[in-house]
Structures are given as structure tokens and as C-alpha cells.
């Protein structure tokens, strides 16, 4: 028996918005410790890693490890039926071929359930190597989304260049060039407004706008985003999901541009 | 593409 009840059901709706453009389908690995999802995007240039810890759920029960292959377009249709203030429960029997989503309104006057067929996914096993990053940049997630959107008008790629002074985002194309520099903030009223750079050595890498823009669909999940870069390894774009976990996107740098 | 190959090597052979 698997059952996970999330009082802040809106978080699950936001998670779905953050992954559904990148992935058509994915396996949710449910274990005693929580729910894990790892999958390459449809074109195998980026990887999504989602971690929801059991402690973040109001109620969590997982008697046996369970792999639930879900069609994300179907799951998204179902989650659209939940209101933002609904409590969402996911449940499945051991070895079941369906998963049930139950939506409870806050005052319990409306309870809906939706059963969805699971799919058998033949997914490759992925390993995420432990990496020390040369640069770790924290910035407001809305600012990062804005930068990706603005620079996408200039070209297909964004160059991210990190030095101890700050971080520079650049793009170039037919209409011209664009540079956005963010300095480390000295003092801020709110921590979520801060730009922080932790740099061991300067790094400059180029990434596809298309994917960075898809990652920014996670912006509603967190006020801050963390970018980790090292030469010759994928960029990590991480959004914390309150006290429950995180979503990380890994993106290959452009090679041979 | 080279990027696909890069990701395959990085994540499939940790």
C-alpha cells in the first residue's frame, strides 16, 4: 500500500507545471524515504531530478518500494481538476496498475477521486555523480526567469559567465547583443532577494535558451534558484520545494559552438 | 548530437 497526503496540494500542481514540458512520461519511485523521479527529457539533452521527502507529507505510507510509470499529460489533466487549496492524496495498492488521486477541499465539503492507468516504462538507470562545483550562484528565481526570457529574443544560446564580482548573462544574434550583469548583493532586507556567488574559479559556459526557459517553469515553487557550474559538467538549476524537497535540472553545455 | 552524447556519458557511467 502506498499513500501520500499533501495538505499543500498546490505544490504538486506546481511540480507538474515544472516538468510536463520536458517529459512526456516518467517513473515515480516511491520508497519509505519519499518519492523520487529522475528522467532525461524527450531529446536527451537535459535531466530532471525531483525529490519529495516523506517528512514533507502530512501522511506518508509506503509498505513496499513501488515504481509508478505515469503519462504526465494525463497526470497534468487530473491535477488541473484540483483547486489550489485542495489537499491532494496519491494512493496505490502494491503491484497495482492504477494510481488514485483524491482531492479534498479544505472544509471537506467536496471530495473527488480520479483513477489513472499506470504505464510500464522501460527507463534507463541513471547515476548522478557527486561533483564539486567551481561556481554556485544564488539569485531570485523571478529574476532568472526574466533574464532567460529577455535574452531568448537575441539568440538560441545564453552564455553564463561567473567571476568573483558577480555573474554575467549574454546572448548574441541577428539583431545584436545583450549583456545582463548581476553583482553580488551586499545587504538585502529579504534573503530571497539576494544574489550570492560562491566561486572557486571563474567559469564561462554556454547553454541552450530553450531548456533554460523550460526550467523556469519551476519559478512558482521557490523564490530563489541556485545555479551550479563547473567546466565540462552539466549546469545544475535547483529550486527548493519548501520543506519537502527539491527539483534539479541538469543541462549539457553547448559543445562546439 | 554532441550534447546528447555528453549527457549519456556523464549520467550513465557515474
Describe the protein.
The complex is a heterodimer of chains A (257) and B (14). Chain A is mostly beta strands. In chain A, 14% of the residues lie in helices and 45% in strands. Chain A has four helices and 18 strands. Chain A has helices at 9-19, 72-79, 141-151, 209-215, and strands at 2-6, 25-31, 34-40, 46-53, 59-62, 66-71, 87-92, 98-104, 111-117, 135-140, 157-163, 166-173, 176-183, 196-199, 203-208, 224-229, 235-241, 245-251. Chain A has a nine-stranded antiparallel beta sheet with strand order 6-2-3-4-18-17-16-10-14. In chain A, strands 5-1-7-8-9 form a five-stranded antiparallel beta sheet. Chain A has a four-stranded antiparallel beta sheet with strand order 13-12-11-15. The termini of chain A are far apart. The model of chain A has no long low-confidence stretch (mean pLDDT 95). Chain B is elongated and about 20 Å long. By secondary structure, chain B is mainly alpha-helical. Chains A and B meet through loops of A and α1 of B.
How does the SSE layout of this entry go?
The complex is a heterodimer of chains A (257) and B (14).
Chain A: E1 2-6, H1 9-19, E2 25-31, E3 34-40, E4 46-53, E5 59-62, E6 66-71, H2 72-79, E7 87-92, E8 98-104, E9 111-117, E10 135-140, H3 141-151, E11 157-163, E12 166-173, E13 176-183, E14 196-199, E15 203-208, H4 209-215, E16 224-229, E17 235-241, E18 245-251
Helix pairs in contact in A: 1-2
Chain B: H1 2-12
Q: Indicate the percent of residues in helices of chain A.
A: 10-25%
- Radius of gyration from the alpha-carbon trace of chain B, in angstroms: 6 Å
Strand-residue fraction of chain B?
Answer: under 5%
**Low-pLDDT residue intervals, each spanning 5 or more residues of chain A:** none
Oligomer: heterodimer
SSE order of chain A, one letter for each helix or strand: EHEEEEEHEEEEHEEEEEHEEE
The main β sheet of chain A shows up as: 9 strands, antiparallel
Largest interface by Cβ-Cβ < 8 Å: A-B, 21 and 12 residues
- What is the distance, rounded to the nearest whole angstrom, between the alpha carbons of the first and last residues of chain B? 20 Å
Nearest-integer average pLDDT of chain B: 86
- Trace the largest sheet of chain A across and list its strands: 6-2-3-4-18-17-16-10-14
The count of DSSP E runs of length 2 or more, i.e. the number of strands of chain B, is: 0
SS content category of chain A: mainly beta
Q: What is the overall silhouette of chain B?
A: elongated
Number of distinct beta strands of chain A:
18
Low-pLDDT segments, ≥5 res of chain B: none
